[in-house]
Amino acid sequence: MEHFTAKNQYGKEGPNGGGIFKKDYPFKIPNILQYKAYSLHNFRKIPQMCDLPEKLKFEIEVVAQVFPFKTNTYVINELINWHNIPNDPIFRLTFPQKEMLLPHHYDKISKLLTLGAEKEVIDKVVDEIHEELNPHPAGQMEHNVPLLEDERLSGLQHKYRETVLFFPSKGQTCHAYCSFCFRWPQFTGKDEYKFAMRETSLLIEYLKRHPEVSDVLVTGGDPMIMNSRSLRHYLEPLIHADLPSLQTIRIGTKSLGFWPYKYLHSLESEEVLSLFRKIVDSGKHLAIMAHFTHPRELSTPAVRAAIKRIRSTGAVIRTQSPVLRHINDDPDIWARMWKLQVKLGCVPYYMFVVRNTGAQHYYGLSLERTYEIYQEAIQQVSGLARTVRGPSMSAMPGKVHITGLFDIKGEKVFGLNMLQARRPDIVMQPFFAKYNPEATWLDELKPAFGEKKFPFE
Ligand SMILES: *Cc1c(COP(=O)(O)O)cnc(C)c1O
Ligand code: SF4
To answer: What CA–CA distance (Å, rounded) separates 439 from 414?
Structure first.
């Protein structure tokens, strides 16, 4: 077997890094553990695809024109149950589904492909469809970009007083793509949609001037797509900057779900873990905000070993995911997932309502059903798994928590609460909305009891 060299696998900035593996490094990595991505151009070469009907492959081809598509060897070989296609939840999570496109959009693209239309013609139609799919939910683009002496810091978002989001430019892709993801405009190759910043120095400058910020949330894409060198380049200056107001560095990542080998079996993984240890030793809290959609992602030996190794650095793993129709819209799935997380030492943190963007018509659930799933799931777990906050909508004014369905003086209402808000004075302010069994998002709700507006309006 050949020595594992990162260069011939991923190029320089691939998920396991370039130039890190030395010729004389003693570990040899078996083929099955080597990261390989599949997307629109090569998914037909996935061995497990061979036996699937051509119709399904064509549907993938059509939908992948509109939504980003990427999967990898771990997802294919260790997560997906290929005896249950197309219903397998992890297959649905990473492979495009016909129903993700509205029928008239699907027909348009499928006709163009069948006719062998020019790329420019297809791209134009795809652009039009993108614009119809609410590509910037929750006003992310315009509203949260902070200023430093009149310069717009486009790789930062400062939405809540104590938390700043940091989008390192090298972390704007993922080990595989979730088909429901609201960050899809960032992956479709349009620069104007990318929030990116090259340097940590502007972030540090900003934090110095904003001591109210205690948390930096490094996010993407998936920052853990970066090799240890890039991660160090972004994070070491932050811990060396001696910012007393900075308490917590959070890293939002799906690498434990999609590529746990990031933390196993290589010199590169040792470097990543030693960076984690360094952050913890500097006196900051390191929180790995791990995205797990389904208990299957917590079931492999690889993910369990990876969780153990991350926890041994002193980092805490907190978990989050949206509730998705066709993938995890079942209380038993959530109960199983939270129990497993607690058993493995992770802390359940957020359960989200899926956002009103992209293929929401396929993944979306009514707020009422989402709440039922939450309640029936939380009833099955012990207090240690009830740390989860949800279901909540991360919307323009803040995070709106659905606290229940009430019948008050003959009026049926949703109980709501602001878990987070742009305006700190309305955090944890409870309020009510008229019951609407169809509502899937905040913008479909109206204040109850004759009120004119919601607290955030
Ligand atoms: C959830 C969220 C945060 C973090 O909020 P916490 O309540 O501190 O976990 C930050 N920014 C955005 C945009 C969010 O949705
Ligand atoms: S890993 Fe996160 S950012 Fe990447 S596609 Fe999935 S949800 Fe989106």
So the answer is: 11
